[in-house]
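Quick log. Single chain, no ligands specified.
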Amino acid sequence: MIEFCTKRRMVGTILLLTSVSVMMLFFENRWSSQHKLKKAKLAAKALTNASCNPGTVTVIEPCKICPRDENRKELSFCKQTGYKEFVQCSNGKQIFRGCDIVPAVEQKTFYIFESICTVIAVISYTVVRHRRKHLDRLVADKINKQIAS
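-> predicted structure:
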């Protein structure tokens, strides 16, 4: 079936699929991160109210991803969003609490993943093209030997 597709159609299809993928990334980034942020903010407020007395909270360490071992232990501050920050309550108590999902970190990890997939795709394409040229050369040599004899 693919033999009937011309290069122009294949390139057009690839460009169309790439543009649709980029548009989907844009829309998903726009809609899903806002929804996640609202949920995470509500959860973080609930955790803050439960663990600290009302008042000012000073952030000692900024929001970061919870390590795997803390996620496995199902600690209350990592359970909601998978992120934590180290804060000092107004009464002097220092605790970890859950914090909002950081869109910049999520976006960075997503683009790293997409870059790795693109590199793998380019390497795969190069290997397939090289193999195809090698097989075409073998077929041409075989035909030349048959014609020569």
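The beta strands are 58-65, 83-88, 94-98.
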